[in-house]
Specification:
Immunoglobulin-like
Amino acid sequence: GRTFWLSWQPAGIKVVEINWLVSPKIGQSQAPNLDLRSAAPYALKDGDFFRVGNGFLEIVLRADNGGVESIIDKSSDLDLRKFKVGTWPLIWGLALVNSQGQRIWVDNPRTDAFQASLRVTQEEATVELRWRGLWPDDGRHYPTVRVTARIVVPRGNRLSFWTIGVKNPGPLAVVEVAFLFVSGIGVLGSEGTDDRLIVPDQEGRLFHDPAHRLRRWGQTYPSGFLNMQFLSYHDNTVGFFFTTRDTQGQTKFFCWSRQGTPKGDALLSFHHFFPVLPGEDAIVPYEIVVGTFQGDWTVAADLYKEWAYQQWWVREAQAKRTPEWLRAVALGENFCAHGCAFEPREKSFGEFIAHMKQNHEVLGLATVGMLWGWERYGAWFYGDYFPPFEGWEAFDEIVEALHAQGDRLNVFIGAWSIETSTELWRSGEPRPFAMRNADDSIKVAPPWEPGREWVFMDVATDYWRDRLVETVGTLAEHGVDLVQLDGFPWTEPQDCFALDHGHPPGRGGTWQTEAWLVALQRIRERAKAINPELALSGEGGAELFLPYLDVYHSRDNWAEVFDWNITQQGAEVIPLFEYVYHPYILFLGQYNLALWRPLGGASYHRLALARTLLWGQIPIYNLQENLQAPEADHEALAYVRTIGLARTTYAKPFLVSGMMQRSLEIESPLTTVRAQNGKFTGEVPAIQHSVWRAPTGEIGIVITNIADRDVEFKLPLEFGRLGLKEGERHIVRLISDNSEQILDGELTTSKIYRFTLHPLQVILVTVSTQRKGK
């Protein structure tokens, strides 16, 4: 049978009104006069439930098993859990490995006993939850296991703080703790059409009406697909905010799923991974935060910033020295020479030099030449690079030619893997340092090109770290300007069960983050000692690695073409990572679709390139043949030049050095965009814009028209939305690549301006505070 206790443990803390919190009779509330909307924290037993909260939020837990019954925003009385009856009464779940090596599962309803205690002080309310004895799905009983959780709600705070730990697992290995683990989620309002789920997946994804349209989303941290530790679910009235406050990079997984739930309800879960170590306690060493807010996705991001900007990775990223040439470069060009499966023919280093020369003649701006297929065996033959396929002399001629015209060279190496057809792998030397599966077989990466195979290498080994350091060092010696660690941090942490690699088995804990931080520091120190102007790039990005990477290589400007979440699950791409971390890393925005003119001018080019402008990215275009060919989209090429000119001249304080702000509410007609490969057709606003704050405090609004016609629109300069003070005098300027004029010399309140923009025109509207006495 199961036993329920209600107990009190004041533990020396001054307790306020504890007498009414203890009900002499289970099921009877003793707080009839409590003002639950006051700022004061409270905790009480109310019938079959425990309630803990303050004036902003309330958390309701079931008295029989501790499952989450409700998470309520007090300002609107809106409950995150739309469905109660017939849904899973969850708060935590555990993935375990038993003595037979089976992976098994258990959650909070399947325990021997549950006990709760409540505590209230003037500053916070706390509920302590304790479970003992597990009945997982292997049919066995594990009576020694103890699970303890705590929820703290501070006075006058929109956030609550949750912790959990598992002790005395006996023969079991606790490999995954799912907490917070909440089912029964549905639409927030009556229909869900204004509901939004925000996740830090790549640049960022905003899922529309997820309770109806999103079947499942889940990603692993730290990686390019979960690069920050928060998500939010909101509508036009209220939002729920969730984050973990982990400063060490423990492997974890965030998930939203409606697959297999009893009522088609959504299950929101946060999974914290631990090494496969039988008998070891599993204490999640950081807080899980649950709160409420009002506003759009930028408000949730600002909540996260308040914590993230106090952490070590931001402090160290601020101290990082990024080469000035990266801030001055205008654009980039994509070129693949040798072993490029997607290219119709092989190309030479000489052709790349000629192509970059033509780029310089046509566009006339400093360019990063992104060279693929430079390696000994060709593109993506990772691990075995030298000498380059045409030899070092020809490679050095590339560097010399690009530098002579003010351009830079970018090459890629594989951070994670070795291609198995290379001489290096066939020599057998790297084999002992490859990652291992649980059966001791070598861990092979999922195939992404027919006939090719890559093996995952273990960055926790000195061998692989040394290979990375030596490879980047060699490229630095030959004058390479930008080296991308391809696959990192794009690829999520991997399981490794090698017994002699110096780390615990599995992917849990922090060992992979720690290993990568050591490797990155060594790579950067070695490369900078050889060439202080060398920069490092990651494929995608993740917050923990900001101190060591200069560039975030992004492809999200054309996300509609490659991301099925957008085409099939209602997602929209948003510049979430830029919004949070733009001041601490530069962004390359690679647009892979070639700038040819099929389908009436490939209107999707306009949208994708506009995003590189408005997100503050260096635009990387793809046109690997003659730039002056009749089939080339010369209009798009001219737009690339316009973008490059804006980011390196009049808009540089904002797009390069500034911090992204909440956008304005601009009414715009829609325009149809269609990708040249036919994978996407849609309607988007013709007027696209972004708002920035320069280091000086000046506001800059970058605006462009991606329609094929002139568009008239209104620009609302809302003081409150822009963070400007009513009554203070401001100067409003209109700036383009060839003109500047003052629109207002003494603006003291909000105002609406009218503009007409030509197709692909770019303008900048700045608002600066007028100095006293001027």
